[in-house]
Amino acid sequence: MAENSESLGTVPEHERILQEIESTLRSVYDDQPNAHKKFMEKLDACIRNHDKEIEKMCNFHHQGFVDAITELLKVRTDAEKLKVQVTDTNRRFQDAGKEVIVHTEDIIRCRIQQRNITTVVEKLQLCLPVLEMYSKLKEQMSAKRYYSALKTMEQLENVYFPWVSQYRFCQLMIENLPKLREDIKEISMSDLKDFLESIRKHSDKIGETAMKQAQHQKTFSVSLQKQNKMKFGKNMYINRDRIPEERNETVLKHSLEEEDENEEEILTVQDLVDFSPVYRCLHIYSVLGDEETFENYYRKQRKKQARLVLQPQSNMHETVDGYRRYFTQIVGFFVVEDHILHVTQGLVTRAYTDELWNMALSKIIAVLRAHSSYCTDPDLVLELKNLIVIFADTLQGYGFPVNRLFDLLFEIRDQYNETLLKKWAGVFRDIFEEDNYSPIPVVNEEEYKIVISKFPFQDPDLEKQSFPKKFPMSQSVPHIYIQVKEFIYASLKFSESLHRSSTEIDDMLRKSTNLLLTRTLSSCLLNLIRKPHIGLTELVQIIINTTHLEQACKYLEDFITNITNISQETVHTTRLYGLSTFKDARHAAEGEIYTKLNQKIDEFVQLADYDWTMSEPDGRASGYLMDLINFLRSIFQVFTHLPGKVAQTACMSACQHLSTSLMQMLLDSELKQISMGAVQQFNLDVIQCELFASSEPVPGFQGDTLQLAFIDLRQLLDLFMVWDWSTYLADYGQPASKYLRVNPNTALTLLEKMKDTSKKNNIFAQFRKNDRDKQKLIETVVKQLRSLVNGMSQHM
Does residue 327 lie in a domain region? Predict the structure, then answer.
């Protein structure tokens, strides 16, 4: 390399010299014509000078050279002798060292072998740990101890491989480790997938176990609370009867013993699920530095499973098993997530589980709200409520907020009350259908006590009576009272375990009971009252029944107070609206009595068959009217059990309606003529009506109040019977008029019916025979009445 660099440096120098020579020669040949000649002369002179100097130098060193040659010739003989001696010595040394050379080569060869052996041993000692660790790695892979295998790989890479990195087998091992890592990742991911599929299939079993545990803990706590309450002497309502303390203690002791036995049988979530695949996979990915990928995959898959779990079956609302399966799957899912949260670091976080729970909770509420709306069976709704409570308590025990679920329960409570109301509407209808609407008869003390035990009835007068005797109400009253209590119990069932105060439960019970009374029972009563087959006797009994049911409302309030231990004197305590409910029903029944009574009167009146052209009356009242009066007398006898004002109003309404019906009969537009004999016969019927009114069919009327119902008919008939038209016309409009109640239009209509001068009219035939002036008088009266009517219409 140095020679090349030197030659490279010389070349430019030579080029420079050549350029100078070239320039010199060019100047020699180019300057003057004789320059070349002069140059050559100078060059020859210079050469001659150099030859002289060389000759002088050679002459000066010639003697020394000759002396040196002479010395060399002298040494030549000695040198040849020495050469012979050296050659002989060398030969003898060669012959003597042949054996030594052989042994020396053997020694060298042995030393080399020994050194190689030592080197091999050292290298093998260096490689053996690597091979042992690699063998250990293979064993760990075969035994599926992947986390340990990864740790072994780390040791091989960091500690052992650097010792033997120059060997080919080491390079093969190093190249094989990434493949082993990928195999471990795939295997662990496969195990994780199997684990995820397993918990998806068994999430309902996991959830069922967790819910049983939560229910067991809650039952145990409630049992202890009940036991503590009993120590202070407090009785509790269990089912529908008050159970004594001794029996309560026995029941609770037996319950606690059963719970202790069952506690051993309940498995934990860890017993049902092998979480080792998750741990292994997490550790493996952590060691591989790919923990984030594993976390993202796990969370993504679990979110997919959450969506599947939250998707309900279309017929879930048909049976309680559908709801139970739905809840257990969700609980199982979140129990697993909670366990993963607490036993792993970072795989799932509290923020992740909260987000997942909020998403699930919104979906759960929407699903329950939609499916529960199809439930028409209150027992199914109650089962759903109990499942939601257990579901909420279970997840609350794992730290998930469940307030929105209890808010949903209040919505479902309203729906539960609606289903109860529909169910009890059917119960009330059946009770009303089966009732005979007759007072309850009892023949002995035992039957009397049975009725009293069902319904809080108190009447000292009835107690003093001898057997057999009758309660004023019918069988439907105690049945309805019992069913109202049953409704309160049913409503109370939903309020249990809602974590509400006694005041709130009391308010809920009273409001639902009010709905039962004001809406369901009231509607059933109104429908019953309006049924065509319900007669007057039944309506009277219904009024009596509602009176006793109204009086029983205070006992229902006491009943609720005993359940909730909330005094009725509390400011915010809701009152039962039984007073208004039964009062409205009574008013409806009273109105229906008036309507049906009037309808019955109309039926009798339709049987009337007057001969409006008769010349003389029969001398007795019409048969239809006597039958009607007898009917009214019997009906008003039944009314004696009604409140006085109701019976009086019914009687007055009947008389007024009868009076109006008779008046309409006279003024019927289809009736063209009326004889005086018919008027006299009609007068006999009105007299019977007046006699009936004066006989006081219903006690409590003052004076002739009831007779005033027929005053319009009486004054009209008196006017025609006496024929006192001059007095009527003269006193018309005066407060003291004798015929104050006679309307001119009514009198004119009736008079025109009597004015017919046909031969069939006996009255006017007599007029023509006896006194034609009366005919003129009638015509004059008719004209005056018409003038009076026209004047009244003009003023109006």
Answer: yes
